[in-house]
Design goal:
The chain is of the alpha+beta class and 175 residues long. It has three helices and ten strands; from the N terminus they run H-E-E-E-E-E-E-E-E-E-H-H-E.
Length: 175
């Protein structure tokens, strides 16, 4: 399998949101993927085919959980990127955590303080400043890494299964 030669709206952009939603869910084991993609005006057309302009996919996870992702590089609107989770016992949406307990909905702001101290960023902050700093702190042994190698590998399997499904039009079972 050739890695790194797939991507358009999902691979180059929305994969970060998909990864975050999966991480919020606790990185459950992926079971299957089903997807569709469309390349209307591909910017890139390599040996694996054109990069998609639109991508829609479902990922089935252990425990009956599912992630749905829809993304387009031709959004044509000022709608912000939205990542929401809905579950049997609650939801994370609109910056709030909602829970259903004892017949009552409770809501709290999703703004807990960080559990580690970061340095003061430079005047012009690179987009991934804190992510890079956290990685360096993990390498130095000051904090645990946010993601381990097994989770990273499983996430790449999710992306591959989504792209393979979009290519064949079939649901892809994952090992």
């Amino acid at each position: 399998q050739v890695y790194g030669q797939k991507g358009g709206a999902l691979g180059q952009h929305a994969s970060h949101e998909l990864d975050m939603a999966w991480w919020w869910m606790g990185c459950p084991k992926p079971v299957w993927a089903f997807a569709a993609r469309h390349a209307v005006y591909p910017v890139y057309d390599g040996p694996e085919g054109p990069a998609e302009d639109y991508f829609s996919g479902l990922v089935g996870l252990e425990g009956g959980m599912t992630i749905q992702i829809d993304c387009s590089r031709w959004l044509h609107s000022d709608t912000p990127t939205t990542v929401e989770l809905y579950g049997r016992d609650g939801a994370v949406t609109g910056g709030k955590i909602s829970r259903y307990e004892d017949g009552v909905f409770t809501t709290e702001e999703a703004d807990a303080p960080l559990d580690i101290s970061y340095s003061q960023p430079p005047e012009s902050v690179p987009a991934f400043y804190y992510e890079i700093e956290r990685f360096a702190m993990a390498v130095e042994g000051l904090v645990e890494p946010e993601v381990n190698s097994q989770d990273a590998y499983q996430f790449m399997q999710i992306l591959d299964a989504l792209y393979d499904s979009a290519k064949t039009g079939d649901k892809v079972e994952m090992e």
